[in-house]
Amino acid sequence: MAYSKDNLRLVGGFTGNNLFTYETDDALATVVASGYFTPAEGEYNLNAGDIIIAKTGDNTAIDLLLVNGVSPATVVNGT
Question: Which pLDDT score, from 0 to 100, does residue 35 have?
Fold first, then answer.
């Protein structure tokens, strides 16, 4: 699968300090791959410093992702 705009939700905050939730059947390794969230840069103004609470794969864990770069969007897993 791939990133889906419908699965990303803005919880609140401000540019560079937003909090999002994201749910997908994609494996965590797919979600943290460089460029996965690149479409969200335009759709949600995703920026470095934003945080994504992600429920991925078989939904046995929640991961805390930090956006650490854009164009392409890159995230690191803070768990």
Answer: 95
Q: Which long-range contacts (CB under 8 A, 24 or more apart) does 54-57 make?
A: 54/21, 54/22, 54/23, 54/24, 54/28, 55/21, 55/22, 55/23, 55/24, 56/23, 56/24, 56/25, 56/26, 56/27, 56/28, 56/30, 56/31, 57/25, 57/26, 57/27, 57/28
Answer yes or no: are the C-beta atoms of 67 and 51 closer than 8 Å. yes
Taking only the tens place, the pLDDT of each residue in 41-67 is 999 999 999 999 999 997 778 999 999
Q: How far apart, in Å, are the Cα atoms of 78 and each of 23, 41, 43, 66?
A: 16, 20, 24, 7
Question: pTM of the full predicted structure?
Answer: 0.91
pLDDT tens-place string over residues 6-35: 999 999 998 789 999 999 999 999 999 999
